[in-house]
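pls read this protein:
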Amino acid sequence: MPGWHERTSEWVKQGRLTVVGVIQEQHPERCRLFAQWKQFGWPILYDPINVLNTTAVPITVAIDEAGIVRAVGPSKDDFAAIFLDRTFPNPGIRADAPSLTPSLDSISLAKRADKTGNATDWRSLGDNLALWQSPARINEAIAAYETAIKVADDDFPSHFRLGVCLRMRHETKDRHLGDFARAVTSWEKALAGNPNQYIWRRRLQQFGPRLNKPYPFYDWVIAAEAGIRSRGEIPIELPVRPSGAELAEPSKKFIGASRRATSPDPRGLISRDLNALVRASVTVVPTMVTPGETARVHITFIPNRERQTHWNNESDPLQLWVEDPANGQVAEHLLQMADVAAPVSKEIRRLDFEVLVPADARDTITLQAYALYYVCEDENGQCKYLRQDLGIRLPVRSTAK
């Protein structure tokens, strides 16, 4: 995209070309930050659910004044010769040509889906709700995609889009425990049905282990923010900052944890969080691990809103201790959150790590782990240092022939 921007910017200034981008991205603010950094001056549309059904990116489409596609995938060097410098006949608009304007009336779409019971109609309703009305109606979008899948389990675009919406809800205050894990399962089901879908594969790789990662997805964020500040501007704020798997460099081999780390509570003396002041949600990518291969384990720590739980940031940070499985290894034994400047906060917190599954693993292996954290129940409530024990289950794929 930066290369195309450099090549076309003069044509745009001359009024010879209008540029519009479409981004296949789970988080629109990250695209806005990149555009701010590279100083793109043209609009970029946000398509998190891949309603365009593109199987790979980038794709360049040249469309003339009559709305007719004249070239797909032209190179930057050939673009002027095959499109910009040419004149194309205008065939006009046929009287019987169908309208390409989508209906934005979710009520009409819901009535049609309910009447026909067609999976495509239910998916269209989900698309309308997800693209134009989320996050306010994200639950309805999820329900529409779930109905489409119930009608036709081989509707793989609905599986992918359901995963996108579940991940969206996971990042809101209205999240349900297990949303992220369900999103991964939905993306895997979609990709199994169409393994040539790069967009779907990329979404899994974004949160997956380093051995399956083609490149670090968001390693540019820090450089972008620094570059924008150096120009005297304020970078676009990212509500969900990339971390862990989204920043991890690819690796051709698994690197186990150093033995120098020591358990912060080896005798288990710290009081347990019996009142669930913090809820922990575990997601494993991939959901089923092949013996001898790796998985990425994501743990989301969610303060209990009903008990008005908040983090106490004036003492030790949130820590996670993970034991090696029998005959396997974890990449890190002791993980901890970065310092938070505010004395108290209520954000959800995420930690993730990788594990090498034993080559002789069968059925399911369980990782023993625990988290330690300081929390308070409300503004004037009691603050406690607590431990939460976690048994992390990793289903193992059968290799029997």
About this structure: The chain has three domains: 2-84, 106-207, 253-395. The mean pLDDT is 92.
